[in-house]
Amino acid sequence: MKKLFIVLIVLLLAVFFISLTLGNYDITCKDMYSLFQFYFFDKNVDNPDSLMLIRSIIFDIRLPRLLAAILIGASYAIAGASFQAMFINPLVSPGILGALSGSAFGAALAISFFDSWILTQLFAFAFGIVAVLFAIFITYIYQSKSNSTLILILGGIISGSFFSTLLSIVKYTADPYDKLPSIVYWLMGSLASVDLNDIFIYSIPILIGIFSLLLMSKYLNILSFGEEEAKSLGVNVKLIRIVVIMFATLISALSVAIGGMIGWIGLIIPHFARLLVGPNNIVLLPTVALMGSIFLMVVDDFSRLLLEIEIPIGILTSLIGIPIFIFVLKSSKKGLN
Amino acid sequence: MIKTENINFSYSNKEILKNINLEIKEGDIISLLGPNGSGKSTLIKVILGLLKPNSGEVFLDGKNLKTYKQKELAKTIAYVPQSSYLPFSYTVLDIVIMGRIAYQTIFSKYTNNDKNIAEKCLEILGILDLKDKMYNELSGGQKQLVLIARALAQEAKVFVMDEPVSGLDYGNQLRLLETIRNLSNQGYTFLKSTHYPDHAFLVSNKVVLIKNGIIFDSGSPDSTVTEENIQKLYGVCVNIDKTSYGHNICIPKFAKETK
Predict the structure, then answer these.
(1) I want to staple A79 with a disulfide (CB 3.0 to 4.6 A). Which of A19, A94, A230, A301 is the partner?
(2) Please, which residues 48-87 of chain A have a Cβ atom closer than 8 Å to chain B?
(3) Which segments in chain A show pLDDT lower than 50?
């Protein structure tokens, strides 16, 4: 197992550095090396002008994107895997409780009424949380003693449809020449407009969320025996569920706020990882986090390089994700029989 | 060790358990006999602390069950459920180690000690060779043994089992009963519900008969599992014979008529 983590970490770093050199403007490894020397060893360089250009491309454009891809990929993957363990259902995705629909509505609302990137992010995040709270509220109305996870899923479906409908209303009433295209573009996901400062601010709560879910991994294993067995093994099922929902929702909503709707990662990566390491969440959760980061960085490279114009990353994760998912489902005996 | 006092339990308006008084002593193997829907499983869940009775108290080691924390309780009572299919296929060792969760804190990891305990528990039950197998690929009998191993790893003294032999073939049923008896000789206490009066004769030292949520008789197997009580409990006629080993055994009436 240790070996696998080392391989994944090396792979993550390799993809990260290779991706830094990829793009419309050619940056060679030599350029990167001289930039590195310039920054860390104050070494003089032959061509300061081109170095400044390279510096600006790396730090203003590529580095923030890659860091965003790392954070978002890890977040969706680990939120998906945690929800799958909690709901004892390998087909659950991070949007199961309505977080993504809520965020989409929030962002669309902000785009059509304001013209502020910060407000769009804030609304996306806030309505993601609101949608999940709404789902939990519905669950409380039912107050069913038995099979509360099923009721929770039902609450999530209701909340998700509700916010999807609200999103349709916003789209229908939005200015079709100016606002509607921005909403549609945002919904397809993009990492183009992130900047380094945003990422640093986002990274704190996201990393807290990811590490908290990692701490939950051994309890998530127990939950797969069902509520009664988990309780009799000495686990506070309710508390674990609340903590998992809280942090998975937090990191999903933040991810949507940064990059718009980027689907499928929370579903394919956990399945793929289960093929490699099995379903034990103690190993699975760190694995999916690393794999999600690598996957999204690679997909983002494709979105930048494949065509002259940038392809929305949400489209690519689906296009790449669906065939992988079909392949994984076909061969996933180890994970879910 | 366990004592219930005047337990009443109802789902909405339906009374399931009425005035249940039961005492379980250390080393007991208690068989809970009763027809389907008589309240056996509900009683088991009340004793495990999974369901709260509408009135009445459960005492464990002289302490009210309500005062136990989930973790503390798990270190005393273990639930051995019927073996079932898991949507996520863990290895046998993974599952047995999970019996150690009550000994973990949020920041702790399973240690080598936990792993050693888990392996020892598998060894006690003679299934150490299964440790790297996938749980879902095991037979019903093996799965049941794995779940007992998990309860052993939990280091609980009382094992509560809900129809442990259901779905097992004849050989696995007998092996499981033998395992229960061996563990009882080492000081473990068992409360199990069962549909087989013969199994009560084979391993139990006390039988509790429950019908419509009322305990209507209890005591030693030979004095409690009588022809009359079986008739009352299940509405079928049996003869209770003695084998040459001195064991009681139920023979259905019709079996004699056909000979």
Answers:
(1) A94
(2) 85
(3) 334-335, 337
